Amino acid sequence: MVKEITKLSFKDYLSEKAMDNRFYQGLIMYRSTKAEIQHYLCRRPIRIDHLGICLIRKGRLKLSLNFVDHILEADTMYFLSPMVVMQVMESSDDIEMYTLFTEFDFFQKIGLPVYKVYSMEKLGHENDTILHLDKSDSNRFYEYLMNLEYQNTAPQEALFRLEIIKMTLMLLFYEISAKVSNNLERTSAGFERKNRMVMEFLNLASLHFKTHRSVQYYADRLFISRKHLTRIVKDVTGFGPKAILEEIVISEAVILMNVSSMSVKDVMQELNFSDFGTFSKFFKGHLGQSPLVYRSHKNE
Question: How far from the centroid of its chain's Cα atoms is residue 8's Cα?
Answer without folding.
Answer: 13
